[in-house]
Amino acid sequence: MDLVKLTLAVALVGAAPAAAQAQAEQSAAFSSSYSAEAKADYAEAIAPIRAIYTGTYEQNLRLGWLYFLAKNYTAAAAHYQKAVEQRPYAIEPKLGLIKPLNALGQIDRMLTTYESILKIDPQNTQANYWTGVIFLNRKAYAPAARYFERVVNLYPFDYDSNLSLAWAYFNLGKKAEARALYTKALLIRPGDAAATAGLKRL
Amino acid sequence: MPTFFVSFFRPLLRTYAMLFFSQHLGFAGVLLLVSFAHPTAGVAGLAAAALAVAGARLGGFNREWTDAGAYSFNALLMGLALATFYPPGWALAGLVVVGAGVALLLSVALGGWLGGRGLPALSLPFVATTWLLMLGGAPLLHLPAGETSVYWLNDAYALGGPRLVAAARWVGDWPWPPLLATYLRALGSVLFQDSAAAGLLVALGLLWHSRIAFTLSVLAFATAVGLAWLNGTVPGSFSEYNLGANYIIAAIAVGSVFVIPSGTSYGWALASVPVTVLALAALTAALDKLGLPALSLPYCTTALLFLYVLLLRQRAGGGLVLTPIQRYSPERNLYAYATDRVRLAHQGAVALTLPFLGTWTCTQGYADGGPTHLGDWGAALDFAIADADGRTYQGLGLSLSDYYAYNKPVLAPADGVVEEVIQHLEDNAIGEVNLTQNWGNTVVLRHAPGLFTQLSHLRAHSVPVKVGDHVRRGDIVGTCGSSGRSPEPHLHFQVQATPYVGSRTLAYPLAYFVAEGRKDASNVLNGLFNALEAPSYSLEDDSYVSDAPSYASDASSYVSDAPSYVSDAPSYASDTPSYVSDTPSYISKTPSYVSDASSYVSKTSAKTSGPSFMQPSLAQLKHFTVPVAGETVRPPAFSRTLSQALRLPPGYALEVRSAAAPEGPSQRWEVFTDAYNLRYLRCQATSAVLYFGGDESVFYCTAFYGDESSWLYAFYLAAYRVPLALLPGQTTHDELPLSIVRQPALAWAQDVLAPFYRFVRPTFALAEAAAPTAGRTVVLRSRVAVAWFGRERETQAAELTFRDGMLAGLRVRRQGQEVSLHFSQPNA
User: Fold this and answer.
1) Does the first or last residue of chain A, that is N or C, have fewer Cβ atoms within 10 Å of its Cβ?
2) pLDDT at B662 over 90
3) Could you tell me the residue ranges of all domains in chain A?
């Protein structure tokens, strides 16, 4: 045991100047990557990160984003996934992962990702709303309604969640509730076509 | 306070249980608790139910229904529903108050209107009231509909802050398997609760109340989900309210509440599911135009349809029997029906007794191979008197007066009116028959519309009555002769549905008689009976013989053709019309229950398996069965002590004391009659009630309600069936309802299987303790045991002492404890 500690201490003392240099290189690489991204030259933005890539959380997150912009969704998802594993409590990489998954059409993985967010942050509006949308698209109106209800309770005057919840309620036969929500959606956006159509259907 | 509780809070609590057709107070408590999972709904429901109970009491409506919660559960539903539609406030409170009144009025009115047709009002008053309030009341009060259930997290936060929200979400987010969650939510939604946890409580409560209803709820749910799956519907898109309040409740109602649970009733319940699906779709489409929800209307329409068609059947049975007396528990309904079907099959029937005095031998029974009772004329009996050698005459037997039976009085078997008299035909010489006047001198008596008896081969000019005379049971209507197709004096007795001489026969049992064993019928008559008594054309058609059972099914049409006959039993028919209409089986299927009846008739143990020829078996008292050929029968001589002690007329009372504490407090048991003229013993100390019945020949208990640790319950088990004739060595057997079984695991397992298979049998046996002791003391010992899979456990052993025409003592051993009771008359 002592031997291990000793070796570690020696390594750290010896590595200190090297670490300072690596820090400077990483800052420069990120800086040039941002400049390239601003010009929408994503290949150029990826290159410096790749050059200094050691697999840190920050590098994975950055690469995930840049590969997503470069439309290399598989690589993007892979880097985001690494970031998710590195910071399992973080919501940031999970929300990032959603984007390439959506582009790849991997709805099941999107759903599990949203669910993993909600385990950590049950109030997360975005996760709640989009989970509801996924269930709505699957015609699973009962669970969809439960997710939309959370959003509507947090943001009672939000157009999208009101309209989505109204549609879920309508399909569950809760007509009175659906009517109330469509009416509310019309208050938010007077004359809104979707809400008017919904009211007509009732 | 206790009185107030009983008269107000108990009906209020039962209102909750009534949502699942129950009176189980524990289940009711669970439902009350669950209703408060949505606090506003809970308050509104409770207030509406309380108002309805109070209104029903003040309004003087049927007390029995009020106390059962039958007038208030619609108000409860209305309160629950309104609070989930509209936000809390004065406007909602006003709606609930008005709605409770309207729901009560509609419950009474619809209950009366449909009740007259033998149908329940179900939740129709709730649907109508809620529509009325939604269409009329809410717009007047400017109530915005449909918002309250959406903002449940905000409501929870307002009520209990972040902790309540966290708790609500923790419960709400429990990771139930999706289908289980849907089932639970469906049950919860009957109480307008949108939570699987609430549904879990309801499910557990339902299981506590009834294993059969619970099983049906799962089956109906599975069927509905299966149908939806076939239809391509995704599980998440079920409307939980419709699953619960429509499909599940309809299946429970149709399969176990209003119909006696059976394999067929389960099929009937599952058949109701697709019909409810259709009704729901159609009603929703139609009502959408009016902006109204279908609520539980689809369930009501399906259940009423499925029950009404059963009521309109000409031939009842087939596993679908309408519940005769609603006991608000599928198990109790089933067990009571199963036992009563055997025990009380004859209740309400006209009791026929032997049409003679003394001991006679049945020389020819029902289509049992006898020479003359064939085909449609098969259900007839011949009687003659035989001596110890089996001979029917003394001396040479060449003259009529040599025959023991000749000129013996023939009696009316029951009260009635003389319908037909033929008495001008001369008696035949021995061995000769009159082929032209087959029946000879005959009296036909009418006992009830469609119920006649015919007594034939009477002696010429021996009939003292004339057409139109009223006769009582036991009146002499003639003497035994040998007129008509009769080679020697004997009596021909048959029951028939039409008044004509020689009508085809009706299988109909005798209410009671003592059978003294069998003699070989052919031996008795020495082969003299070769001349045939039945109309000659019956011989030409062999099918008559092979068709013998057909008269049984014919008989059923007789019952449905003559419903007025049933009304002759007023106490019974007015009480339970459905029971009567559903159980003509006791007439149409006489042969089957005759054999059933043997399970409770007195048996002489160990003697029954001996040879039939001149079997020296002990006498046994038989009830509602038919003598068989060779059986020697006589009217029973009843024990005066027993008859007097167990007559128990209304107003009769007994003072009961424990022998261990003769100076201690006594209980008073008093006999009353209920609205249906049924008698019961009521213990004033424990309020327990014991229903009983019987006739001249037997006393039996029919039902017990109340505390099962009471003394009255011990008496119920001890005197479950007491024959009033004492015959040496006879043991009386009977079957108790399964509801007396007190081992929970065993009872619950049996409950689940009960509609299909019964493996637990509670049995009752009673015998005289010893030869009659000095004086007029009769001691009877009875034993109740529960048998299953070859095991047997004694539930109770008892000794009943009767002295000087009174119940004097009862000693009971139950669960290792022994109780000894003394009885006295309060005024003595």
Assistant:
1) N
2) no
3) 1-87, 122-202
